User: What shape does this take?
Amino acid sequence: MTTITTPFGHDSTALEVVADVDLTGKRAIVTGGSSGIGVETARALAVAGAAVTLAVRDLAAGEATARDINASTGRDDVRIGYLDLSRTTTVRAFVADWVGPLDILVNNAGVMATPLDYTADGWELQLGTNHGGHFVLANGLHTALAAAGNARVVSLSSVGHVRSPMVFEDLQFRSREYDPWLAYGQSKTATALFAVEGNKRWAADNITVNAVHPGGIWTNLVRHLPADEVEALRGRLDPTMKTVEQGASTSVLVAASPLLEGVGGLYFEDCNQALPYVEGGPRRGVAAWATDPAAAERLWDVSLSLLS
Assistant: This one.
């Protein structure tokens, strides 16, 4: 299979990848749309003509972001909705309030390297937030996505997925020692596998699902890390770090570009399909366990059973 490439790359910004894209009449949801790359993802989609809803946990921050995007784009239709991905009751309430078709769903929100904790549904917090909450959201909005025709779902993964496959024998760290980075890695493997199985299950509904690694960006995602660990990361990663505008580019490309019409079930980074990850090599690419169809199907079934 030929690897998909585009004219864009590491340094491209979200606005650059939608410069010639027309999303007039389209409707989009961006989770975590009030901070970090979520803001610039939503802004670029709005610039291209989409009516964007920010699905956020902090309503005040969401309202401020909606005003900012409306003002910067000359629009007046950026909306907000309350959603806490660690509490699926709020996710289902958000879904219940949605009316009409949905063209673009960007599962952007997430947490990283948190202390051991569990969601209201009993999932380890990172797996439950990054994957579980979005799994409920996307499945709840499936009818709206199908009604749109040619809808796209973007699932934010991370190169951090190379730290861990799905450990189905103990997904929730009930019996093994908790490691925040292993838990993060597993959660981001899950978001990649969601794209594999979601694309397979929903292809007949003309819904494509892809996973995205946005790259390294300094956002409040590092808020749970000790200061010395943040500084160590800075020293190691600064040369390759992106601005938030660059970090949003791959999500926006996958969500909106005609270059990827009909493309699904893949993992993208730096605005191109990722190459296979090589153990011991640079931290880039996608690990085989994050594209394994059998693991993707198993995770989907487990998620259905635990979140139904």
Q: What stands out?
A: The mean pLDDT is 94. The radius of gyration is 18 Å.
